[in-house]
Design goal:
Growth Hormone, Chain: A; 546 residues; globular; mainly alpha; 2 strands
């Protein structure tokens, strides 16, 4: 294979960022691709950890805004502090624009290739951080919304889906495991980024400056290096490539793996797309609801029992409240670990029990655990209470990591990245449904005079109902009808976008070159060391729980 193409009788080299340029050659080791994806996902995953900036930003000026100041006036005000509620809009914008950009530009990504998409993602995400740094420096919150929320959110969407199609094509024998490795990085991004941001703010802080804008600049530079390195390391397999000795078979998955390919513009017209959309939305809605209530629920249900005193939450002293808050922080850290580990564990399990079977586990076991949590709280069993939440959060993360392989099984691998992008609108919907449902139900319960320790019971039962609906939707998923598949001519037209077939002399027999093993080890160390550091920091925080 050569990098040169012949156009009008002259050999011309494809553009550096084009898909043609990154078609792998014989001997390429496919295990170099997952760390490239992890390098990008660990960076954009910091979106989950942005709350580490809220408190210092809310006190950056040292003067509260006048009570009668209008919302739009406050957006451009530079003389008073921002309330955390205004800063929180960045978090909302992150996931709205993640879903929208993934849906809108998913088709472009399939044609442009993961390298170009990864570079654009790096420019948007890191450029957004630099614009946010300017917003903090000039104390203009609209610049933060525009920088991190809008532009950064677009980078999130492109970076999130950039490796999906590539990994699935490199690992047709382990689709779940492959996507689980990458999407695990998105869950772990905050675990690395939040302590890094804390260290940077401590380094740059002065008497009159919390060091936030300097931290944004430093993180933008660090993340840019990692993301560009990941994007440039992407390689795509030639059309028709398969691992040596592997043959596709649907026998072990109940016939759920299709042999055809569905175009992204056709996929959303199928009942399977909307059933899987509902499956993801309901699983994520319940999970987000749990994440939002986990810390206060633990504190209000167990209250003084967390520190060995038999007192209700309202009877605790400020010092005792501080002690249980520290324990709740450890609990939150433990949940983060299970969220991340569940992404890899459950996605890998789906390679053996099938994607549909895995979601049956999520909804069936999840329903039982959600319904059991109130009883565990009443019994005062802290260990079982914590264990239930850990398993629930592992399945929340596992839902994200398993769904790309589910889509590949149903719609084929040719345009799975674009289809996944459109499906992520379910995430945006769940980001609204889950927190709103939980927060308003809790407030309604408290307004009726229900004790804080019992205010979550009804919410958990309703979340169990969402999981029951998800179970039904998953049960209704069937293989896609052949009438939706692309014809041979349509498939050939899609494959013409920067793809090449495996040469006859090496067809299906691309054994990895042994000399590539040191590079594989080095690539995994580059992403593994930061991730291990984040896990270690989180484990130290969780020790308080015990």
């Amino acid at each position: 294979m050569t990098d040169a193409f012949v156009l009008d009788g002259a050999a011309t080299r494809p553009a550096f960022l084009s898909r043609e340029r990154i078609i792998a050659r014989p001997g390429f080791n496919r295990w170099l691709v997952p760390p490239a994806a992890l390098a990008i996902h660990l960076c954009i995953g910091m979106a989950y950890g942005f709350s580490v900036f809220w408190l210092p930003l809310s006190q950056s000026v040292g003067a509260a805004c006048a009570p009668d100041i209008g919302f739009f006036e406050q957006i451009f005000a530079s003389h008073c502090d921002w309330p955390i509620s205004m800063l929180g809009w960045i978090y909302t914008l992150f996931f709205v624009f993640l879903g929208c950009s993934a849906a809108v530009w998913g088709g472009w990504l399939e044609h442009a290739g993961p390298r170009k998409a990864g570079v654009v993602s790096a420019l948007c995400w890191c450029g957004g951080l630099l614009i946010s740094a300017l917003g903090v420096y000039s104390h203009q919150i609209w610049l933060m919304w525009l920088g991190s929320g809008v532009i950064g959110g677009i980078g999130l969407g492109l970076g999130y889906i950039s490796p999906v199609s590539t990994l699935i094509k490199w690992f047709p024998d382990r689709r779940g495991m492959a996507t689980g490795m990458a999407i695990m990085g998105f869950g772990g991004g905050a675990m690395v980024g939040a302590p890094l941001a804390t260290l940077l703010m401590s380094h740059f802080a002065t008497d009159g400056d919390a060091g936030v804008w300097q931290s944004f600049v430093a993180m933008a530079l660090i993340y840019f290096v990692f993301m560009i390195g990941g994007a440039l390391s992407y390689r795509v397999p030639p059309s028709g490539w398969k691992p040596a000795g592997w043959a596709a078979s649907s026998a072990s998955t109940g016939g759920m793996i299709t042999r055809g390919h569905v175009h992204v513009n056709t996929a959303w017209k199928t009942p399977q797309f909307w059933l899987v959309w509902a499956v993801l939305c309901l699983n994520v809605s319940a999970g987000i609801g749990i994440i939002g209530m986990a810390s206060p629920l633990l504190q209000e249900v167990f209250a003084g029992r967390l520190i060995g005193v038999d007192l209700a939450f309202n009877e605790l002293s400020p010092a005792q409240l501080g002690e249980i808050a520290a324990i709740a922080a450890g609990f939150t850290g433990l949940l983060s670990l299970f969220n991340i580990g569940g992404r890899f564990f459950w996605a890998s399990c789906s390679d053996f029990i099938g994607r549909k079977g895995t979601y049956f586990v999520f909804f069936g076991l999840g329903l039982l655990l959600y319904a059991a949590v109130p009883m565990l709280g009443q019994l005062g069993s802290l260990a079982l209470f914590v264990l239930a939440f850990c398993v629930i959060l592992s399945m929340y993360g596992g839902g994200f990591a398993t769904v790309p392989a589910y889509l590949a099984d149903l719609f084929g691998t040719q345009m799975v990245g674009a289809i996944h992008g459109r499906l992520l609108t379910a995430w945006a919907a769940a980001g609204v449904l889950g927190p709103v449902l939980v927060n308003y139900l809790r407030e309604y319960q408290l307004s009726l005079g229900v004790e804080k320790a019992a205010a979550y019971d009804m919410t958990l039962y309703i979340l169990s109902g969402l999981l029951a609906l998800g179970f039904i939707c998953n049960a209704l998923v069937r293989p896609v009808a052949p009438k939706y598949f692309m014809s041979e001519a349509e498939l050939a037209a899609e494959c013409a976008h920067g793809e090449r077939s495996v040469p006859a002399e090496s067809e299906l027999q691309w054994a990895a070159n042994p000399s590539s093993r040191p590079w594989v080890v080095a690539a995994w160390l580059v992403v593994g060391i930061p991730l291990a550091w984040g896990v270690w920091v989180t484990l130290q925080k969780t020790l308080v729980l015990f």
